[in-house]
From TrEMBL:
Residues 16-171 form the N-acetyltransferase domain. It comes from Leifsonia sp. NPDC080035. This is GNAT family N-acetyltransferase. GO terms for molecular function: acyltransferase activity, transferring groups other than amino-acyl groups. InterPro entries: Acyl_CoA_acyltransferase, GNAT_dom, N-acetyltransferase.
Length: 173
């Protein structure tokens, strides 16, 4: 597998791109954690403070450098609107994303997911997953628009019910 790309242009969304999250991007981590519905539907901790946001950004940089996963800043016209990325697990790669309210409804996450899926497909990955916490209709819609199918139900590490979605990337033999 090639090194994770530092940027992706988001096709069909003028001025939009994904760029690798760096340590000085901690303000978007803090902004997402302080957005009321983001901690409810994601892994962002509601009690994140500036020190925690700086640590979170630094951990993400180390994970990307180590090839374990990568978090990108979703930008449009130079403004940070959220994050998206993927992490490696024993079962392959899993995608994740979160947007500030002002970035929603533009198709940015769906286009970001499709860009990341395209790159993973080019790398020969056989499949990719994403998880949505039950009741997160917006995230479920992203999964469906991007071609994912419901694989199974499960429980989040904090005991919240979730759905695991699967997208096969390789053509069946």
């Amino acid at each position: 597998m090639e090194a994770f790309p530092h940027t992706f242009e988001i096709v069909g969304r003028e001025g939009a791109r994904l760029r690798r999250l760096e340590e000085d991007d901690w303000p978007i981590e803090l902004a997402l954690a302080r957005t009321e519905d983001v901690p409810r539907w994601t892994m962002y901790p509601a009690d994140l403070d500036e020190d925690g946001a700086r640590l979170r950004a630094a951990r993400n940089v180390r994970a990307a450098d180590g090839g374990h996963g990568i978090r990108y800043v979703i930008e449009q016209d130079g403004r940070a609107l959220g994050t998206a990325g993927f992490g490696r697990s024993d079962e392959g790669f899993e995608l994740f994303y979160a947007l500030l309210p002002e970035g929603r409804g533009r198709g940015l996450v769906t286009a970001a997911v499709e860009a990341m899926v395209g790159w993973l497909r080019e790398q020969g990955e056989p499949l990719v997953r994403l998880s949505t916490l039950d009741g997160n209709a917006a995230s479920e819609a992203v999964a469906e628009r991007s071609g994912f199918r419901r694989e199974r139900s499960g429980t989040h590490v904090d005991n919240r019910p979730l759905t695991v979605w699967l997208l096969p990337l390789a053509e069946p033999a």
